[in-house]
Amino acid sequence: MKYKLETIPVWDAVEHSTKTCIICHLMEQSEARKIEFYLGNSVMNPETRVRVNSRGFCVHHYRLLTEGGKPLSLGLMAHTRLQETARQLEKALNALKASSSPRSARKAAKQMQEVLAGREKDCLICEGMQDNLNRYLYTTVHLWGSDEEFRTALRDSGGVCFHHLPLLTQMAPEALSGDQLAVFCRELGAYAEAWLQRAVDEVHWLTQRNKSQYAGSDWKGCEQAHVRAVVMEIGSGRIHEPPGRK
Ligand SMILES: [Zn+2]
Ligand SMILES: [Zn+2]
Predict the structure, then answer these.
(1) How many angstroms is it from 118 CA to the middle of ligand 1?
(2) For residue 62, how far is its CA from the centre of ligand 1 (angstroms)?
C-alpha cells in the first residue's frame, strides 16, 4: 500500500459534508490543523524550528499564520527565520553595497533576487497538506472498492468538486484493480453528473428566489448556492488564494 489509510476522517466527511466537496472539507480541516500546529507547542521543538528557518511558508500560509492570533509563537518563529534570511543574504547585500559599475550592480541585484526567490519557493504547510490530500484521495477510492455502504454514502454526499475530481481519477489506479477501475470511473461519472445537476439547480433557484414573484418562498437551503457553485468549479481552498499561486 502506497499511502496510509485515513478511513475515519473520510467517512466523517462523507457523512457530514452534505452540501460541498468532501475533499475540500477534509483539506480545510487539514489546513486548520497545520496552522494550529505551527502556532502551537511545535514552536518549542528545535527540529520544527530548524525546518521553518530553512523552508518557511508560502504567502497564503504566512497570511493565515499572521491571522492566527498567536503573536508570541509567530514572533519566535519569525525571529530565527529572519536571522537565517539575514545570514543567507549577507554576501548578496555586501555585493550590493559594493556596486561599482552597472555590470557589478546588475550581478549583485541578481544574486540577491536568487537568494530571496529561494527563500520563498517552499512551504511546509502546503507540503503537509499535499501528503494529506494524497491519503484522502487514496482512502476515498479504497473505501469505494471495499465497502458497499461507502459507495452509497459517497453518492449521497456533497460530492467532489471539479478541482478534486480529476485527482480522484488519477489516484484510482493506485487503489483499484483493472476491472474495478472501470466500474469506479463509470459510477464516478454518474455521481459527478448528479452532483453537477444539483449545483446547477440550486444556484438557479437562488436566482429565481430573488425575483419578486418568489418573494417569501422557501429558500430550500439555497441561500449560499452561489458560493457552492463556485466551489464546485474550483474547490474551496483556491477561492482566497493570491494571484500566482497554483
Ligand atoms: Zn474539492
Ligand atoms: Zn503554503
Answers:
(1) 30
(2) 22
From CA 11, how far away is CA 2, in angstroms rounded? 20
Determine contact, residues 238/167, Cβ cutoff 8 Å: no
Cα of 1 vs centre of ligand 2, distance in Å, is: 27
This prediction has a pTM of: 0.89
Please report how many Cα atoms fall inside a 13 Å half-sphere around the Cα of residue 160, on the Cβ side: 23
The CB density around residue 167, as the number of other CB atoms within 10 Å, is 16
**Residue 179 cell numbers, joined:** 476491472
Closest Cα partner for 25 from 170, 133, 131, 167? 133
Grid look-up 499564520 returns 65
What count of Cα atoms within 13 Å lies in the side-chain half-sphere of residue 19?
14
CB 222 within 8 A of CB 200: no
Looking at all shown ligands, the one closest to residue 28's CA atom is: 1
Q: Among the bound ligands, name the one nearest to the CA of residue 60.
A: 2
> What ranges do the domains of the chain cover?
32-124, 126-238
CA of 200 from ligand 1 middle (Å) equals 16
pLDDT digits (tens, 9 = 90+) for 39-62: 999 999 999 999 999 999 999 999
How far is Cα 53 from Cα 61, in angstroms, rounded to an integer?
15
